[in-house]
Each structure stands twice: as structure tokens, then as C-alpha cells.
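1st attempt posting a full record on here, be nice pls
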Amino acid sequence: QAAGDRAGLAQLRVFRSHQSWLTGDFAAALAAADDAAAQAAQDGDAALALRACFQRGLWAIGTGAMAQCAALMAAVAAGAEDPAHGGRFGLDAPLVVVARGYQARALVELGEVAAARAAADAATAQAARVDRPFSWIFAAFADGVVLRAEGRPAAAAARIREGLAQCDRAETALMRVVGLMLLGAAEADAGDWAAAEAHLAQSAAQGEAMRFLVHQPQRLAMRARALHALGRPSEGAALEAAARAMATAQGDATALRMLG
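the predicted structure (as C-alpha cells):
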């Protein structure tokens, strides 16, 4: 194949992986990432190999393979700004913020809170360098996740609200879904079940409307918990069943753990 054809094929594989991940089709996301990695090995393309690493990291956080996610995202953060990559496949300074953010979230799930704090702080420092709304949003949400793990739900909620305010200004609808989910989780930690239920309902509804289904089973499971706490067990049980079915179909082990 001509070099241009190979480059186009690489871009297509990255796109397929990312699009599949967004819609919660994690098997397809991983298959396309593996195809990209195989092509990178065949072509000796280090940039494509690192982007495939990032796509595999997304698969890992989607399915609950947190140790893999943390390691993969650390590798991406360490290499994304290598000038040898020439910024190909989205390897640049803003991607470092995203990778550190996901690394922090994965480390929280692993109970490695001190390491998660270091990753979140690195995301914030990188966001200051990049100075773009999306980067600030991602860093704020990562910081909020770690603040929750540090037992500071009020500070977590405040930080997540900062990110949500940026979402409104930058019109980043997908990240608003994420922020509402994280805000609901922080409010649940603080015992504010009514606010948590409202924000989790908004997050799930907006995610469904956009077919942005990464972590959708978790949104449903967390909302179900809030409904039970509010004395609405029938609604909670129905959401639990829906969350379990979707989590099983996606292979979202985190959601299944949440459901017990």
C-alpha cells in the first residue's frame, strides 16, 4: 500500500476505536486499537503505537481494568510531547492533561490516593501550560475525583463545579455529562441525596441523548443508590436492573462492582 493509504488507514483505526469507545462498544474499541498497534509495529510508527496505547487506556477505564489504564496513560503522558511524533494522531500537550486525568481516576479506583494526587496535580500544571478550556475542564474533574478520595466531598463538589462552569462557557456538552456524574457522586458522599439524584439524572439523560454511553451504567447505578436513599425503592430497583444489563453488555466491571 502507498504511504498515504497507510496513513489514512491508521487514522481510520484510531477514529473507529475512539468512536466505538464513546458509544460504549468497548470490544470494538479494543479491536480497532489492537489493529492500530499492529499496523504501528508493521510500519515502525512510534506515534501510531503511542496513540494505540492511549486508545487501549480508554478501553481499560471503560471496562474497569484500572491497573492497565493507569500504566497506559502514564506512558502516553510521558511520551505525547516527543517532538519526534510531530503532533501526529493528536499527540500533543493537551493530550497529556487528558492522560494524567485518566491516570488519576484509575489510581483512585485502585486505592492509590497519593499517586492519584500526584497525577491530578500534574494534570493541573499541564493545563496551566496549555491554557485551553477543555484542558482546564479535564484537570478540574480529575482534581475533584481525587478530592473525593481524600475524604473532602465539599471541596470536590466545588472543584467539579468549576469544571462545569467551563463546560458552559466552552459549550463542551460531552464533558458536561461527565461533570454532572462526578458532581452527583460528590453530593452523595456529602449525604445530599436530592441534589445527587437530580444531577445524576441529568447526566444519564444527556448521555443517552447523545449516545455518549461510556460509564452510563455507573451513572444509572449511582442514581439508583440515590433513589433508594430518598425512599424510592421501586424506581431504584428498576434503574439497578437497567444498569446491570448495560454493564454486562458493555463489560463494565466497575459498574457491576458498584451494583454488588
